[in-house]
Specification:
The chain has a single domain, classed as Roll (SH3 type barrels). The two termini are about 20 Å apart. It has about 80 residues and is an all-beta fold. It is globular. The protein has no helices and seven strands. Strands 4-5-3-2-1-7-6 form a seven-stranded mixed beta sheet, with no helix packed on it.
Length: about 80
């Protein structure tokens, strides 16, 4: 995958590989010592029940999607479901 600047990801829609729109990218977590990315923090779409996704939630109900699940970044961030 080509390098993409984080500023270009801000507010980008996140979609599952099955075509389900999950929500909007809220933030990205990383290890500050190593620079390794951990999770995409996704503000879930109202139509999606966060309890029915395989992803952990934070205290605000946002989904923590492991970066390893990212399949493509184009108009949407596509993740493996």
């Amino acid at each position: 995958m080509a390098d993409i600047l984080a500023e270009n990801l801000s507010g980008k829609a996140v979609m599952g590989s099955d075509g389900t729109e999950l929500g909007m990218l809220y933030n990205i977590t990383m290890n500050l010592k190593t620079g390794t990315l951990h999770d995409l923090v996704v503000d879930p779409h109202e139509a999606i029940s966060p309890k029915k996704t395989p992803f952990e939630q934070d205290e605000e109900g946002r989904l923590n999607v492991p970066v390893g699940r990212v399949q493509a970044v184009k108009d949407y961030i596509v993740i493996q479901r």
